[in-house]
Amino acid sequence: MFPIPLRADRLSKTYGASFLSTGKCIFHEISLEIRQGETFGLMGASGEGKSTLGRVIAGIERPTSGSVYYNGYGLTEMKKIENAAFRRKVQIMFQDPADAFNPRKKIEQAISEVLKLLRVPEAGYASKIEEMLVTTGLPDEVLSRYPIQLSGGQLQRLALGRILLLNPEYIILDEPTSALDVSVQAQILHMLKRVQAERNTGYLLISHDEAVIRFMSDSYGVLENGQLKIIE
């Protein structure tokens, strides 16, 4: 049996609607599917609502209308246990990796906090952290540093590594390379492809860069004027 895709069904988002105003429509009746092991690319100019759509699909923002379906359940209709599974299995990786870390905490502490939330026995922290470092291609030295002491590429690898500790089925990648140098961008994209192949992870890749979209995506769509045109 094939896994049920993460699905957006006729999602609309409007800001500022009231009795006296219809508000500003960000996007209207957007439908798409993200399948495990595949990448759906979401392309469009700045201000078209790509990141907002990603946050809605991740459950961070609520749509004005429409629904997100995970394992056949509508997000707004999920019971507590189903919603908890969704929150763990559908993750989002933001554009600026520095925002993902507390600047006052060393990296090892930031990673350990996730393991604690996952109820991993403390004796197992070292092996989990080592596995994460191997996956992301980072040296042990990063653990003793503060986020400000690391490069953007290192922080983005760590942001992905911390997400992977949750063993997600889907990751929304919101402009994951736009803040990085070109050479580092290529490294991050190849790492994402390798992780996807190893873990069968589904990606929603948000980018304004057509070359990145074409390199990474199995199919993609262009968001423009609130409408999504899907290109296979």
Automatic annotation (TrEMBL):
Origin: domain of life: Archaea
Coiled coil: none
Keyword Nucleotide-binding: yes
Cleavable signal peptide: none
Keyword check for Transferase: no
GO biological process terms held by the UniProt record: transmembrane transport
This protein's UniProt keywords: ATP-binding, Nucleotide-binding, Transport
Ranges for domain ABC transporter: 6-231
Gene Ontology molecular function: ATP binding; ATP hydrolysis activity
PANTHER family (alphabetical): D,D-DIPEPTIDE TRANSPORT ATP-BINDING PROTEIN DDPF-RELATED (PTHR43776:SF7), TRANSPORT ATP-BINDING PROTEIN (PTHR43776)
Stated family: Belongs to the ABC transporter superfamily.
Protein name from the UniProt record: Oligopeptide transport ATP-binding protein OppF
